[in-house]
Please model this.
Amino acid sequence: MLQNNAWTGTLFLAGIFYDSMLMGFAAVVAVVTGTLTARLLRYDEADIEAGLYGFSATLVGVALTFYFNPVPLVWAAVVLGSVAATWLQHQFIRRGWPGFTFPFILVTWILLYLFHHVYQPGAAASVAGAMPVSDDFTTATNGFGEVIFQGSVIAGIIFFVAVFISSPTAGLYGVCASLLGAFISLEFAEPATDIHMGLFSFNAVLCAITFAGNKPRDGIWVLFSVVLSVLLDVGMLQQHMAVLTFPFVAACWITLGMQHLLQKMGIKIKD
Model:
């Protein structure tokens, strides 16, 4: 979630293990694979230490064990997918492009297609939430949990605390974004269960964290990106697409494009 903080990362891993030992193990395998790949290919050491070659790989590992029965071929895909995500991440980094989680998205979309149409390993057992999700508090925290495919309230709380200790501003913006995502999706008459699970909030949370800052204009960009991500989220889910974090990435690219365009036009949003 864009936090360069070791304690934050530790809490993320703890939250994943709390919900699913299997996903936690997959996350470790994937992040180790991604990091080793970056070292073997001699990518920049500072970028490796910052975790830039680990997060997309980690998401690939968690996603595959979230969707599929962990047969040997799925584990092989976790490793190969982590290598591919790391290589793709490097293509963005060396060109100075904001790739965010797009390497994870692209690799996972390809693997989802292959496992649905070429070889079907079977669906994974669902990860049930440990507590009921029926109020604003749990809706807000679930928006954090679903960023890394976790459905329990406890995992969501752990993820929120993880972001908050690294950046209180980003954490609080994320809570507001999660609730706003739920409200907007409710206006589109989306299923209440899906809304409370955070399925329409986690991309909004990521957008809020990305553009969070202490100036009023930061709030404007947070609002713009969050609303855009939720609209994309709703549209993709209505088309039965594998959303993943694409609404977040697309909304951030568009928002950054808007900022660049306004800058070129000499228009400055006052602080």
The two ends are 25 Å apart (CA to CA). The chain is about 70% helix and 0% strand. The chain has a mean pLDDT of 92.
